[in-house]
Design brief:
With 102 residues, this protein is an alpha+beta fold. The chain has helices spanning 41-55, 58-63, 78-86, and strands at 4-5, 12-13, 21-28, 69-76. It has two domains: 1-28 and 71-88, no CATH class; 30-67, no CATH class.
Length: 102
Amino acid sequence: MIHYSCDRCKRPIPVQESIRYVVKMEIEAAIGDCSNECPDADLDCLSEMDEILENMEDDLLDEDLSIVHQRRQYDLCPNCYREFIKNPVGREKLVPFGFSKN
């Protein structure tokens, strides 16, 4: 039997009793946006991308390709899902200043 646990709170998720939420993330490195700069966007941007990649250190690319592309998957229990959906990128909530009316 397969057992699931929440990747956020680490509690077991009973398959028969509750819903489990699967969050899939795909992360890709984006090297600039030359669509506005290049009149012939396809050819010019490809040559620009090739030049950028050639200038990057070869050992950096060989050492860790995860800087270019990553796929991740997380299981969340219903409580953690509700918290995640409120703030998916984990930003700190801004507290408004309480200025007096002086």
